[in-house]
Protein backbone atom coordinates (compact mmCIF):
# COMPACT_ATOMS: atom_id res chain seq x y z
CA UNK A 1 0.00 0.00 0.00
CA UNK A 2 1.45 3.34 -1.01
CA UNK A 3 1.81 6.24 1.42
CA UNK A 4 1.66 9.97 0.59
CA UNK A 5 2.49 12.53 3.28
CA UNK A 6 1.73 16.24 2.98
CA UNK A 7 3.89 18.20 5.38
CA UNK A 8 2.86 21.32 7.29
CA UNK A 9 3.96 24.04 7.20
CA UNK A 10 4.56 24.29 3.47
CA UNK A 11 3.88 26.75 0.67
CA UNK A 12 3.04 30.44 0.88
CA UNK A 13 4.60 32.49 3.67
CA UNK A 14 3.27 35.81 4.96
CA UNK A 15 5.67 37.84 2.79
CA UNK A 16 4.65 36.07 -0.42
CA UNK A 17 0.95 36.31 0.42
CA UNK A 18 1.35 40.03 1.00
CA UNK A 19 3.39 40.63 -2.18
CA UNK A 20 0.86 38.83 -4.41
CA UNK A 21 -2.04 40.63 -2.75
CA UNK A 22 -0.27 43.95 -3.33
CA UNK A 23 -0.15 43.31 -7.09
CA UNK A 24 -3.76 42.08 -7.20
CA UNK A 25 -5.04 45.03 -5.13
CA UNK A 26 -3.01 47.51 -7.21
CA UNK A 27 -4.61 46.09 -10.37
CA UNK A 28 -8.08 46.47 -8.81
CA UNK A 29 -7.50 49.97 -7.43
CA UNK A 30 -5.44 51.54 -10.23
CA UNK A 31 -6.27 49.29 -13.19
CA UNK A 32 -3.92 47.50 -15.60
CA UNK A 33 -1.15 47.70 -16.45
CA UNK A 34 0.93 47.80 -13.30
CA UNK A 35 4.67 47.30 -13.70
CA UNK A 36 6.55 44.95 -11.40
CA UNK A 37 10.33 45.10 -11.15
CA UNK A 38 11.56 41.51 -11.14
CA UNK A 39 9.29 38.49 -10.58
CA UNK A 40 7.09 39.50 -7.63
CA UNK A 41 7.95 36.13 -6.07
CA UNK A 42 9.97 33.33 -7.65
CA UNK A 43 7.14 31.16 -8.96
CA UNK A 44 6.29 30.60 -12.61
CA UNK A 45 2.60 29.84 -11.95
CA UNK A 46 2.12 32.97 -9.83
CA UNK A 47 3.92 35.21 -12.33
CA UNK A 48 1.93 33.85 -15.30
CA UNK A 49 -1.33 34.31 -13.37
CA UNK A 50 -0.56 37.94 -12.57
CA UNK A 51 0.55 38.60 -16.17
CA UNK A 52 -2.86 37.39 -17.32
CA UNK A 53 -4.49 39.93 -14.98
CA UNK A 54 -2.45 42.85 -16.36
CA UNK A 55 0.85 42.89 -14.45
CA UNK A 56 3.91 43.59 -16.60
CA UNK A 57 7.19 42.21 -15.27
CA UNK A 58 10.27 44.27 -16.07
CA UNK A 59 13.97 43.90 -15.32
CA UNK A 60 14.84 47.49 -14.50
CA UNK A 61 13.17 50.74 -13.46
CA UNK A 62 14.00 52.25 -16.87
CA UNK A 63 11.76 49.66 -18.52
CA UNK A 64 8.69 51.22 -16.88
CA UNK A 65 6.97 53.92 -18.97
CA UNK A 66 6.66 57.49 -17.67
CA UNK A 67 3.85 58.02 -15.16
CA UNK A 68 3.37 54.31 -14.61
CA UNK A 69 2.83 52.51 -11.32
CA UNK A 70 5.82 50.42 -10.30
CA UNK A 71 5.87 47.65 -7.68
CA UNK A 72 9.08 46.39 -6.10
CA UNK A 73 9.18 42.62 -5.57
CA UNK A 74 9.19 40.78 -2.22
CA UNK A 75 12.98 40.35 -2.49
CA UNK A 76 13.65 44.05 -1.85
CA UNK A 77 15.68 46.59 -3.80
CA UNK A 78 18.89 48.57 -3.39
CA UNK A 79 18.87 52.26 -2.56
CA UNK A 80 20.00 53.06 -6.12
CA UNK A 81 16.97 51.26 -7.61
CA UNK A 82 14.70 53.17 -5.25
CA UNK A 83 16.28 56.50 -6.17
CA UNK A 84 16.12 55.81 -9.92
CA UNK A 85 12.35 55.36 -9.53
CA UNK A 86 12.22 58.63 -7.54
CA UNK A 87 14.21 60.47 -10.22
CA UNK A 88 11.76 59.19 -12.84
CA UNK A 89 8.86 60.41 -10.67
CA UNK A 90 7.21 56.99 -10.82
CA UNK A 91 4.52 56.06 -8.34
CA UNK A 92 5.99 53.18 -6.34
CA UNK A 93 4.40 50.53 -4.15
CA UNK A 94 6.90 48.50 -2.19
CA UNK A 95 6.16 44.78 -1.79
CA UNK A 96 9.48 44.06 -0.05
CA UNK A 97 8.85 41.48 2.66
CA UNK A 98 9.03 43.17 6.09
CA UNK A 99 11.54 40.51 7.15
CA UNK A 100 13.85 41.54 4.30
CA UNK A 101 13.42 45.19 5.30
CA UNK A 102 14.47 44.21 8.84
CA UNK A 103 17.78 42.89 7.42
CA UNK A 104 18.22 46.09 5.35
CA UNK A 105 17.82 48.24 8.48
CA UNK A 106 20.20 46.07 10.44
CA UNK A 107 22.85 46.31 7.73
CA UNK A 108 22.44 50.07 7.55
CA UNK A 109 22.75 50.47 11.32
CA UNK A 110 26.05 48.56 11.32
CA UNK A 111 27.33 50.48 8.32
CA UNK A 112 26.47 53.81 9.93
CA UNK A 113 28.21 52.70 13.15
CA UNK A 114 31.38 52.20 11.13
CA UNK A 115 31.33 48.39 11.31
CA UNK A 116 32.50 46.25 8.40
CA UNK A 117 29.35 44.43 7.34
CA UNK A 118 29.55 40.88 6.00
CA UNK A 119 26.50 39.45 4.24
CA UNK A 120 26.05 35.68 4.14
CA UNK A 121 24.16 34.93 0.94
CA UNK A 122 24.22 33.75 -2.67
CA UNK A 123 25.80 36.08 -5.24
CA UNK A 124 23.37 37.21 -7.92
CA UNK A 125 20.17 36.56 -5.98
CA UNK A 126 17.94 39.66 -6.13
CA UNK A 127 17.55 39.74 -2.35
CA UNK A 128 21.34 39.80 -1.97
CA UNK A 129 21.66 42.61 -4.53
CA UNK A 130 19.00 44.61 -2.71
CA UNK A 131 20.52 44.03 0.72
CA UNK A 132 24.10 44.83 -0.36
CA UNK A 133 22.74 47.93 -2.06
CA UNK A 134 21.63 49.46 1.26
CA UNK A 135 25.22 50.69 1.70
CA UNK A 136 27.56 52.25 -0.89
CA UNK A 137 28.94 49.90 -3.53
CA UNK A 138 31.94 47.90 -2.36
CA UNK A 139 31.32 48.47 1.35
CA UNK A 140 29.61 45.16 2.13
CA UNK A 141 31.52 41.87 1.85
CA UNK A 142 29.69 38.76 0.63
CA UNK A 143 30.42 35.20 1.77
CA UNK A 144 28.49 32.08 0.88
CA UNK A 145 30.53 29.23 2.40
CA UNK A 146 32.98 28.73 5.28
CA UNK A 147 35.97 28.72 2.87
CA UNK A 148 35.15 32.30 1.84
CA UNK A 149 35.78 33.57 5.37
CA UNK A 150 39.58 33.12 5.17
CA UNK A 151 39.72 35.38 2.10
CA UNK A 152 38.03 38.34 3.81
CA UNK A 153 40.05 41.49 4.17
CA UNK A 154 38.83 43.81 6.91
CA UNK A 155 40.38 47.01 8.30
CA UNK A 156 39.57 46.28 11.96
CA UNK A 157 38.77 42.74 13.11
CA UNK A 158 37.11 44.20 16.23
CA UNK A 159 34.52 46.15 14.21
CA UNK A 160 32.83 43.47 12.16
CA UNK A 161 29.14 42.48 11.92
CA UNK A 162 27.21 39.98 9.85
CA UNK A 163 23.70 39.75 8.44
CA UNK A 164 22.24 37.00 6.25
CA UNK A 165 19.93 36.39 3.32
CA UNK A 166 16.51 35.28 4.65
CA UNK A 167 16.14 32.07 2.65
CA UNK A 168 19.39 30.20 3.33
CA UNK A 169 19.94 26.68 4.58
CA UNK A 170 19.85 26.88 8.39
CA UNK A 171 22.54 24.18 8.72
CA UNK A 172 24.92 25.58 6.07
CA UNK A 173 24.60 29.07 7.50
CA UNK A 174 25.50 27.79 10.98
CA UNK A 175 28.80 26.55 9.47
CA UNK A 176 29.55 29.93 7.88
CA UNK A 177 28.69 31.74 11.14
CA UNK A 178 30.98 29.38 13.07
CA UNK A 179 33.84 30.20 10.64
CA UNK A 180 33.17 33.93 11.05
CA UNK A 181 33.13 33.64 14.85
CA UNK A 182 36.40 31.72 14.81
CA UNK A 183 38.11 34.35 12.71
CA UNK A 184 36.38 37.37 14.35
CA UNK A 185 35.57 36.39 17.97
CA UNK A 186 33.87 39.75 18.62
CA UNK A 187 31.76 39.77 15.45
CA UNK A 188 28.29 41.24 16.01
CA UNK A 189 25.36 39.03 15.09
CA UNK A 190 21.73 39.88 14.32
CA UNK A 191 19.58 40.41 17.44
CA UNK A 192 17.13 37.90 16.00
CA UNK A 193 18.12 35.45 13.32
CA UNK A 194 17.84 36.82 9.77
CA UNK A 195 16.83 33.49 8.23
CA UNK A 196 13.08 33.99 8.34
CA UNK A 197 10.51 31.96 10.26
CA UNK A 198 9.07 30.53 7.01
CA UNK A 199 12.44 29.28 5.78
CA UNK A 200 13.42 27.67 9.07
CA UNK A 201 9.96 26.17 9.70
CA UNK A 202 9.81 24.64 6.20
CA UNK A 203 13.33 23.21 6.54
CA UNK A 204 12.55 21.68 9.96
CA UNK A 205 9.32 20.25 8.53
CA UNK A 206 10.97 18.79 5.43
CA UNK A 207 13.63 17.09 7.60
CA UNK A 208 10.90 15.27 9.48
CA UNK A 209 9.08 14.54 6.24
CA UNK A 210 12.26 13.08 4.74
CA UNK A 211 12.72 10.86 7.79
CA UNK A 212 9.32 9.33 6.96
CA UNK A 213 9.66 9.19 3.16
CA UNK A 214 11.63 7.44 0.44
CA UNK A 215 11.06 10.22 -2.09
CA UNK A 216 10.28 13.87 -1.45
CA UNK A 217 8.68 16.15 -4.05
CA UNK A 218 9.25 19.84 -3.39
CA UNK A 219 6.92 22.08 -5.35
CA UNK A 220 8.66 25.30 -6.33
CA UNK A 221 10.38 27.01 -9.23
CA UNK A 222 14.04 26.50 -10.15
CA UNK A 223 14.92 30.11 -9.28
CA UNK A 224 13.30 29.95 -5.84
CA UNK A 225 16.06 29.99 -3.23
CA UNK A 226 14.01 28.61 -0.35
CA UNK A 227 12.55 25.82 -2.54
CA UNK A 228 16.03 24.73 -3.63
CA UNK A 229 17.12 24.64 0.01
CA UNK A 230 14.12 22.41 0.87
CA UNK A 231 15.12 19.93 -1.82
CA UNK A 232 18.71 19.89 -0.55
CA UNK A 233 17.63 19.43 3.08
CA UNK A 234 15.41 16.49 2.09
CA UNK A 235 18.19 14.90 0.04
CA UNK A 236 20.74 15.29 2.82
CA UNK A 237 18.30 13.62 5.17
CA UNK A 238 18.74 10.50 3.10
CA UNK A 239 15.95 10.28 0.52
CA UNK A 240 15.62 11.12 -3.16
CA UNK A 241 14.28 14.63 -3.59
CA UNK A 242 13.04 16.51 -6.65
CA UNK A 243 12.11 20.14 -7.23
CA UNK A 244 9.09 20.42 -9.52
CA UNK A 245 7.01 23.32 -10.81
CA UNK A 246 4.01 21.00 -10.96
CA UNK A 247 2.87 17.47 -11.82
CA UNK A 248 3.98 17.91 -15.45
CA UNK A 249 7.61 17.68 -14.22
CA UNK A 250 7.20 14.31 -12.47
CA UNK A 251 9.16 11.62 -14.30
CA UNK A 252 8.23 7.94 -14.44
CA UNK A 253 10.82 5.96 -12.58
CA UNK A 254 11.26 8.44 -9.70
CA UNK A 255 9.10 6.24 -7.44
CA UNK A 256 6.79 3.23 -7.36
CA UNK A 257 3.86 1.99 -5.30
CA UNK A 258 6.16 0.63 -2.59
CA UNK A 259 7.73 4.02 -1.94
CA UNK A 260 6.64 6.44 0.76
CA UNK A 261 6.16 9.78 -0.99
CA UNK A 262 6.49 13.09 0.85
CA UNK A 263 5.27 16.43 -0.49
CA UNK A 264 6.37 19.92 0.52
CA UNK A 265 6.24 23.29 -1.22
CA UNK A 266 8.48 26.35 -1.18
CA UNK A 267 7.33 29.65 0.31
CA UNK A 268 6.42 31.00 -3.14
CA UNK A 269 4.50 27.93 -4.37
CA UNK A 270 0.68 28.14 -4.31
CA UNK A 271 -1.46 25.45 -2.67
CA UNK A 272 -3.31 24.75 -5.94
CA UNK A 273 -0.11 23.14 -7.29
CA UNK A 274 0.10 20.91 -4.21
CA UNK A 275 -3.51 19.87 -4.80
CA UNK A 276 -2.76 19.11 -8.45
CA UNK A 277 0.18 16.89 -7.49
CA UNK A 278 -1.95 15.04 -4.91
CA UNK A 279 -4.67 14.52 -7.54
CA UNK A 280 -2.09 13.39 -10.09
CA UNK A 281 -0.87 10.72 -7.64
CA UNK A 282 -4.39 9.63 -6.71
CA UNK A 283 -5.35 9.31 -10.39
CA UNK A 284 -2.46 6.86 -10.80
CA UNK A 285 -3.51 4.69 -7.87
CA UNK A 286 -1.41 6.17 -5.06
CA UNK A 287 -2.99 6.69 -1.63
CA UNK A 288 -4.82 9.87 -0.62
CA UNK A 289 -2.39 12.15 1.24
CA UNK A 290 -2.14 12.22 5.01
CA UNK A 291 -1.02 15.37 6.82
CA UNK A 292 2.23 15.45 8.77
CA UNK A 293 2.08 18.59 10.91
CA UNK A 294 5.47 19.59 12.26
CA UNK A 295 5.03 23.23 13.34
CA UNK A 296 2.22 25.72 13.81
CA UNK A 297 2.39 28.95 11.79
CA UNK A 298 0.21 32.03 12.10
CA UNK A 299 2.25 35.00 10.83
CA UNK A 300 0.52 37.64 8.68
CA UNK A 301 1.69 41.02 7.38
CA UNK A 302 -0.57 43.98 6.64
CA UNK A 303 -0.81 45.65 3.24
CA UNK A 304 0.66 49.10 2.56
CA UNK A 305 -1.78 51.82 3.71
CA UNK A 306 -2.77 52.92 0.20
CA UNK A 307 -4.05 49.42 -0.65
CA UNK A 308 -5.91 48.58 2.57
FE1 LIG B 1 9.52 37.04 3.76
FE2 LIG B 1 10.65 34.73 4.48
FE3 LIG B 1 8.61 34.73 2.85
FE4 LIG B 1 10.96 35.66 1.99
S1 LIG B 1 10.48 33.55 2.58
S2 LIG B 1 8.98 36.58 1.63
S3 LIG B 1 11.70 36.63 3.90
S4 LIG B 1 8.58 35.44 5.01
Note the main attributes of this structure:
single chain, 308 residues, alpha/beta, Cobalt-precorrin-4 Transmethylase, domain 1, Rossmann fold, five-stranded parallel sheet, binds iron/sulfur cluster
Notes on the protein architecture:
The chain has 308 residues and is of the alpha/beta class. The protein folds into three domains: 3-12 and 196-293, 3-Layer(aba) Sandwich (Cobalt-precorrin-4 Transmethylase, domain 1); 14-96, Rossmann fold (3-Layer(aba) Sandwich); 99-195, 4-hydroxy-3-methylbut-2-enyl diphosphate reductase, catalytic domain (Cobalt-precorrin-4 Transmethylase, domain 1), CATH 3.40.1010.20. It has ten helices and twelve strands. The termini are far apart. Iron/sulfur cluster is lined by residues 13-16, 74, 97, 99-100, 166-167, 196, 198-199, 226, 267.
Write the layout of secondary structure elements.
Layout: E1 3-8, H1 14-30, E2 34-37, H2 44-53, E3 55-58, E4 69-72, H3 79-88, E5 91-94, H4 98-112, E6 116-120, H5 126-132, E7 140-143, H6 146-150, E8 160-164, H7 170-183, H8 197-211, E9 215-219, H9 225-236, E10 240-244, E11 260-265, H10 271-283, E12 290-293
Parallel strand pairs: 1-11, 1-12, 2-3, 2-4, 4-5, 6-7, 6-8, 9-10, 9-11
Rg (C-alpha, Å)? 21 Å
Q: What is the CATH class designation of the largest domain?
A: Alpha Beta
Compute the number of helices: 10
Ligand kinds: iron/sulfur cluster
Oligomer: single chain
Q: Which structural class best describes the helix and strand composition?
A: alpha/beta
The percent of residues in helical segments reads: 25-40%
Distance from N terminus to C terminus (CA atoms, Å) equals 49 Å
Q: Please give the CATH architecture of the largest domain.
A: 3-Layer(aba) Sandwich
CATH superfamily of the largest domain: 4-hydroxy-3-methylbut-2-enyl diphosphate reductase, catalytic domain
State the CATH topology of the largest domain.
Cobalt-precorrin-4 Transmethylase, domain 1
Q: Provide mean pLDDT, rounded.
A: 97
> What share of the residues does DSSP label as strand, in percent?
15-25%
**Low-confidence blocks of residues:** none
Order of helices and strands: EHEHEEHEHEHEHEHHEHEEHE
Amino acid sequence: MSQVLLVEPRGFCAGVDRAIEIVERALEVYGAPVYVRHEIVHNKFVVEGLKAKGAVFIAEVDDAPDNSLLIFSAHGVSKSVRSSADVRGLRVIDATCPLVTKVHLELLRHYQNGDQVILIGHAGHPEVEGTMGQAPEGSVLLVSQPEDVEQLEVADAERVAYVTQTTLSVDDTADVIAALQTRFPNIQSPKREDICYATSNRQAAVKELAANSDVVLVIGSKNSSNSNRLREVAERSGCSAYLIDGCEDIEPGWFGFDDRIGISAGASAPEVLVEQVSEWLKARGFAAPQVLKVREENVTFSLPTELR
